[in-house]
């Protein structure tokens, strides 16, 4: 768990409060994936953005068919500055979702502090590991369902 300091201006005073950034909850994951899906749709429909993301990762030599939601998620994390410049609302909503900091509070923070929150989210969540774990679970499910179908067919 990583602690960050939120600063809220009230009149002439600034109130500070501590916020703990922890591993993603299911709810945070769902909200994050909603934002990522939106980014994916925007990037897919905008050739300039698609080219920008592809240029950022040109060493991977991707073609259009390989631009998946998982890859966009990795792009969004790896090219966060690019995302923040081109799709600022989605970038801020993504950090809000992943940090558990309300969007209204997050928007009132200084940019430097915002990057601290982003760094804390990455520190607490190994995004690549989470995706690999999800893929493994899905593969296991497919195998078990396939086996169950074959077993049912064989005993019918």
Describe the 3D structure.
The protein has helices at about 25-45, 45-55, 70-80, 80-85, 90-100, 105, 110-125, 125-155; strands at about 1-10, 15-20. It is mainly alpha-helical and about 160 residues long. The chain folds into 2 domains: about 1-125, no CATH class; about 125-155. It has a two-stranded antiparallel sheet with strand order 1-2. Helix 3 packs across helix 4 (about 80-85) and helix 4 (about 80-85) crosses helix 5. It is globular. The model has no long low-confidence stretch (mean pLDDT about 80).
Instruction: Output the number of helix runs.
Output: 8
What is the strand arrangement across the widest sheet?
A: 1-2
The termini sit apart by 52 Å
Number of strands: 2
What is the number of domains?
2
Q: What does the radius of gyration come to?
A: 19 Å
Structural class: mainly alpha
Low-confidence spans: none
- On the 0 to 100 scale, the average pLDDT is 81
Could you spell the SSE succession in H and E letters? EEHHHHHHHH
Please summarize the sheet with the most strands.
2 strands, antiparallel
Shape: globular
């Amino acid at each position: 768990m990583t602690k960050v300091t939120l600063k809220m201006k009230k009149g002439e005073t600034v109130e500070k409060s501590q916020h703990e950034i922890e591993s993603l909850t299911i709810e945070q994951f769902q909200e994050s994936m909603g934002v990522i899906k939106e980014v994916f749709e925007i990037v897919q429909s905008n050739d300039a953005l698609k080219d920008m993301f592809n240029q950022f990762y040109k060493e991977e030599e991707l073609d259009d068919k390989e631009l998946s939601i998982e890859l966009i998620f990795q792009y969004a994390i790896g090219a966060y500055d690019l995302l923040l410049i081109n799709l600022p609302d989605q970038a801020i909503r993504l950090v809000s979702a992943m940090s558990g900091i309300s969007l209204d509070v997050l928007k009132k923070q200084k940019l430097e502090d915002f990057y601290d929150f982003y760094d804390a989210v990455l520190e607490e969540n190994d995004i690549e590991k989470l995706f690999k774990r999800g893929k493994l679970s899905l593969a296991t499910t497919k195998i078990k369902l396939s086996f169950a179908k074959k077993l049912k067919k064989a005993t019918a």
